[in-house]
């Protein structure tokens, strides 16, 4: 056990602790804190019935509860408050607790403080999960003992005693997790930044500031990997604390990871190291070339080029990301449920050479959809819309038709639910067509998360 961890155990042991949210990341946290003898109260908006068996598990180890609609009313008299990632840091109840002397923190913040291993962390509006997965696969294939966490994998704080200095840790971090971070990773990656989560963040500026926290606490010896092709990330160079490494799919770079003559290469001191031919990469789409370039830039000092090539030529992708579900009567059905923003759906549509039948729409994150009109007009043959954002996507297409005349022949159908949408798409489709669920929207109007939406889509398609 490292000294930092022992000091933290001594510090937290006699504290009165509140954990806000009884979700995936916080249940292991609650159990870990309980194992140290900490006095814990768990808070959640859900009631006992909704939370189910987890309540019995936690009651058995002495955890107290504050549940229901007014669950935060009892947030008084605590020394330490663990905030769940999706909760705004400036809720009145949290500000009051802080005023009264409570330390407001999170599972991820404490993990960063205590982790003895090198941390690679990835954030961005699109491509986070694939880039994080690639970095992890590169390191594992090279032979490192590697831990995967954050938004993917498992919560890691309760495994902290198993993590050694020689290990590697790879994390996917959302803007919600980053907002209040007071530490930064050794290697930080920002895939890109575009409008997203404006239903939670008060402004685009607040969203960008949260993303910047991934490098705000770096030192000179740390690395920041940023996308040269994205205007917002490119302009972060003056704020970087560590060494900047760029990646680019479309621009020539003096150094960094880039696409040159159909090859992914890493350029350093004027010398290009070939990693892999773009056409050899198994997962489709130019956005995945960008994900590979970001991952290559992150691990170039730790992983051999031959190892990276081996991963690129064998890795078939992450679930819910342009995932081929099934071919029926010559019609291919793809699940791209992860696409919760217009930029993500645009990237998905551009992965195909032919026009597709697109199922889109979902929960409204208050982000603009006008950027979708041109690509729908160019890449879609039939459009099936669902959810709160269906009308916004339809308007984007209509505006494009009015402006350029393109897309005027595209049939648009509204469906009440995902099953009706798949049935409508199936009626439009004939042999040789592609049907893709790529919603350009979050899932919360109909589903718990994008994975549940993708799983339902696959179930519907597999029952056709």
UniProtKB/TrEMBL annotation:
Residues 320-440 form the Mur ligase C-terminal domain. GO terms for biological process: cell division; cell wall organization; peptidoglycan biosynthetic process; regulation of cell shape. The gene is murD. Its EC number is 6.3.2.9. ATP binds at residues 124-130. This is UDP-N-acetylmuramoylalanine--D-glutamate ligase. Belongs to the MurCDEF family. The keyword Ligase applies. It is an enzyme of class 6 (ligase).
